[in-house]
Every structure is written in C-alpha cells, then in structure tokens.
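The following block was generated as part of the benchmark described in Methods. Ligand: iron/sulfur cluster.
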Amino acid sequence: MNINATLVNYYFLCHRKLWLHAHTIRMEHTSEIVYEGKLIGEESYPQRAEKNQEVEISIPYPPLGADGALTAKIDFFDAKKGIVHETKKSNAKEKAHTAQVQFYLYLLRKNGIAVSYGLIEYPKLRLTERVTLDEEEEKQVEGWVNEIAELLAQAHCPARLPVSKCRSCSYFDFCWIDEP
Ligand code: SF4
C-alpha cells in the first residue's frame, strides 16, 4: 500500500474517508462535485499544459512494507522556477489543500529536485494562495504520513463524522444509507 496526495488530503477531511478510499471502496466517480473539480482544473488554465510539466514522483516508505512508498502525480510543475501549481474549485480555502501541496513539495525535495513554493489557485474565489515548506513544516508532513500509516493499519473503518460535515461527501450514501 502507498500513501499518495489524495490520502493526505483526506486525512484533513475525514479519517473514515481516508480509510475507505485506501481500502479501494471508491465513490468519487459517482460524485458530480468531484467531476466539477476536475473540469475546473482542466478548463481554467488550459495554457498550463504547454509550459508546465506533469510529474510522477515517489520515495520509499518502509513502514508500509517492503514495497511501501509515498507517491504523487503532480499535474502542473514549473521545473524552471520550482513552482508547483494546484487548482481547487472550492468556495473556501482548506488546510487539506495546503497539506496536499506541501506533500508535493516534500516529495520533490526528497528526490533532490529544487523547489521554491506552491501556488493554489481558486478560480471561484479569484485568489491565489502561496504554500511554503520550511524545515519545521517538513517534520509536520512526516508526522501526517506516520499518522496516516497508523490509520491504514487499523482493521476497522473509523467512525463517521457528524452528518452536518458530510453533505457534500461522495461517500454520503455509503455512510448514511441506514439513517431515516
Ligand atoms: S460521509 Fe461523512 S463520515 Fe462518511 S466518509 Fe464522508 S465525511 Fe466521512
């Protein structure tokens, strides 16, 4: 099993969602919200594909087993300037977004690639968030990864969040189907 950027993102949203996704119980393909997010990423900045580089990257992570790894597929990396670009369709900035980009910066740096910072663009908010990764933040990323590995090792699915936090989740029907 690997830890990827999606799991890092889910770690900050819901541990149950993280566990379900990692155990290949997938609902995202049924979600219009996820589809809309992909569309915004693809349509907001079509010129990016020409000048930025898609990068697949990984480092070994033995706590997950002999083949365990931290992996990421970064859609837009400007290698010349060392800038990771990420686009979010969200109406609000979230810690999960920042953490995902810090995870990208961490993996690039651990592979000896020079990185400057990340930029998260929010087309709906018309703003851009700058994301850095200093030494202290690197340690935080390592802490998240270790906690994610512990969650994945749990035999049982973590408890649900309060329903008020679940309304836009692609697992809503899965988690709440028995509720009146
Ligand atoms: S519906 Fe709620 S409890 Fe279930 S995975 Fe989504 S956020 Fe977590």
